[in-house]
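INFO worker-7 received task bundle
INFO bundle size: 2
INFO processing item 0
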Amino acid sequence: MVMRPVVSVFSATEEKRVGSTVMPRVFGSSLRNDLVKYVHMNMSKNRRQAYAVSKNSGYQTSAASWGTGRALSRVPRVHGGGTHRAGQAAYANFCRAGGMFAPTRVWRRWHRRINLKERRQAIAAALASTAVVPLVMARGHRIEGATEIPLVVEDSIETLTKTKDAVKLLLNLGLGPELERVAKPRAKAGRGKGRKGSKRHPIGPLIIMRASAIEGRRAFRNIPGVQVAAVERLNLLKLAPAGTLGRLCVFSKSAFEALDEHTKPSTSSMLASANVTALVNSSNVQLALKAPIKGTPKATIKRHCNKRILKFVRHHLKKQQKDSKKPSATPALKKASKAFYKNVMAALAPAPVEDVVAEE
C-alpha cells in the first residue's frame, strides 16, 4: 500500500498545525480484509459465556410405555390419574415437555485460539485502513470537516482533565458532524429492544494514546461514541468493530511514533519493483540462470497403475522396436516393386475387341 512520508501534527488547544512527524511503517501494510474478519470473529468468541440446559430437564416425571395392543404409540406415558397430565407422552424429544435431542453442554468448545502472527497482521491491516479516507467514509464516519487523515495531535492531549476540553479538541479537528452522529442512538428492531438495552449507540472516533495517560483517558471516556485505547495494547475489536476496516482514529504524537515498536508490522514484500518481467529478463538474472534443457524427458512407467494401461504401453513399445528393426526401402527395391506392379496390372487388363474377333 502506498503511503505518504510525513503526517501533520495539530494543536490540542487551537485549530492549527504545529508540526509534522514521520508516517510509521505499519501504515504500509496490506489491507487483509479476510484476515481481519477471521481474527475478529475468533476474538469475539472468546467473550462468550457457557450456557446449557439442565441434564434432568424433560425427564423429571414418572412415565413408562403402555406396550402394544392399545392402538397407541409405544412412547412412554405419564403414570397416575385425575389430571390431564396422566397418560400424556413424555421423555421423547417430539413430546411436549419432553427431553431435548443433543442437549447443549457447558463443555462445548466456546473459545478459539488465534495464531500470534495472524493477530499481528490483522492489527497492522486495521491500522493501515485508518489512513485510507474512502474506507473511513465508507464505514460511516463524518470526516468532511477533517483536515487530514490520520489525525495526530500533540502530546498535551494526554494531560487533558476536563471533558469539555476534550470535546473542544475534537471540534477543532473538524469532527463536529461526527460527534452529532454518534450522539443520536437508534432504537433496536424487534425483540432486540428487550435484550441488553433498547437502543443502538453508533461507534465514533477512537482516541489512541499512551497507557500512562490516565488523565486523558478520563477526559474522553464520557463522550458518547468515543472510545480510548492504549498504543501498548491495541485491540482489534476496537480498531475494526464488526470486522470492518476504516475506524476513525485520533493519535497522540508519542503514541503515533510508537506504533511500529508495539505493533510489530508484518514483513513487507521482498520485491522493490512490481515489474517482474523486467527483472527476469535483466542481464544479472539471466547470467545466474541455467541453460534450458533441450529434448523431452524419458517417459517412465508409473507403478501400481491399471493393468490395461501397462499392457497397452508395453505393446506400443514392442511395436516401436519392431518398426525400428525393419530395413529401409532402397531405390532399387522401389523400382522392382513398381515394375512388378505394372506387369500384374497389364496381365489383368481386358484384351482389345479386335484381338477377340481375330481369334474367333
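INFO item 0 finished
INFO processing item 1
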Amino acid sequence: MSAEGQPLGGAEGKTFRTTSYPAIANAPLPAEGSASFSNVQFAVIVLAVPWIVTKLLPFRIGWTFYFILVAILFFPVGMVYWVLVSKYGQRINEKVPFPGRPLDDYIDLKSPALQKWLGRKIPMQVFHDAYFDGKVEFKGDVLEIMEYRHDWASFEFTPEMFRYFFTKFVPEVILHSQSQDEEQVRDHYDRGDDFYAWFLGPRMVYTAGIISDIQRMETLEELQDNKLTMVCEKLNLQKGDRMLDIGYVTGGTLGKNQTAFGNQRLRENGVLESQGRILCMDFRDIPHEKGHFNKISCLEMAEHVGIRRYGKFLREVYNLLADDGTMVFQVAGIRTNWQYEDLNWGLFMNKYIFPGADASLPLAWVLESANFEIKSIDVLGVHYSATLYRWYLNWVSNKDKVVAKYGIRWYRIWVFFLAYSVILRVFQLMAQSMLR
C-alpha cells in the first residue's frame, strides 16, 4: 500500500511514493540522506599521503620508516578525510529532493552564539547538544521535524565528536571490562521503574515488538505479545526445557531494579522460584555447568558486551548451550557501510544513552566463529520502528511527570533518542549449537 507524494520545493512536476500503513509512523520522504565513507578510498589516502611525504624528503628511506610514517599519520590523515567527506560528500539518493526550507522553519535558535547557523545546515552534534541544554527548540513535533533532518542538519564530524571519540569512546572499547559493564548497565537500567514505565508501558518489556497486521495500529501490548510468542515459537519451547535468557526477558541481568521487578512479577503470576527466577549477576557467573541449557535467548543485550569481547562472549554462551541446543539472538544495529549519519548516531548513543554499547553491528559471522550454525536472520527494522513509535508517544504523553521528577534535560535527551530511533533497524538471528 502506498500513496503518491506531492512535488517538493524546487521539484516541480516530480512525484514520489511513500507508504501509508496504519501500523507505523510513515516517513514523509523515501530518500536516503547523507552518503557513505569509502573504505577503499580511505585506505588509498592513508597509504598515499606518507608515500608522497617520503618522495618530498631530500634523502631516500626504507620500508620500515615508511610504515612508521603510516602509523604516525594514520589518525591525522583519517581525521581530515572524515571531516572533508562528511562535510562535502554527496547524498546516496538524489531522486527525491528536499523541501529546501531554511533552518529557522524547523527549529528556534535561542542562543545568540547559534545564530551563525542561520542560512545553512547545522551539524547534528551541535544541534542535539544545544537542544539538551535548552538553547534551541523544535518548532513542532520532534519526530516530524527529525524526519526532515537532512533538510536542515548536516552530519559532518565536529571537533567535539573527535574529542569524545578519542578520549572516551576508543579507550572504553579497548579497556572494556566486566566491572565497566556492571557500572554502565546499572546507571542506565536502574534509573527508576517509573522512568521506564513512562514509555514502556505497564508490561515493562524493553525489546522491539512485532507487527502482526500492518493495516491497523496495534497496541504496544499486542506488539509485545506478538514478539514473545515469536521468540517462544523460534525456540520451540516445550515443558521441561532448561531455558536461559541473558539480558533479561526472563533470566539474568546486571540491573538491580530489573531483578526485583521481574521476580515480583513472576511470583504475582504464580511462577515458582523452582520454575523461573531472575538473577542479578553477570552471565559468566551463572552457577550452571557447561551445556546445562538447551534453549537460550539474548534480546538486544549483546551491544553492551563491546566489540573487543564479542567473540569471547559468544563462545561462553555457546558453552552454556547443550549439544544441538537453540538460541534466539537479537541485536540493534547500524549499517555497515560507514554512513555519515550512522557514525553521528553511534557516538550520540554511546555518550548519552548506552555508554559502552559499542557493538551495534550485524555480526552473524561472529556467531559462526563461536561454532554456532545460523538457521535464520530477520531484519526487524519496521517492527522496531513501530515499537519505538509507541514508546515515543507514551514518553511525550508523560512529559509533565518526567520533567517533575527527572528534569527537562532528561526528557529532552530521551524524546530525541526515541524519535530518532523510529528510523533505526534491528537484526534477529536464530542460531543452533553444532554437535561437539
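INFO item 1 finished
INFO post-check item 1: Confidence is low (pLDDT under 50) at residues 1-13.
INFO post-check item 1: The chain has 16 helices and 13 strands.
INFO worker-7 idle
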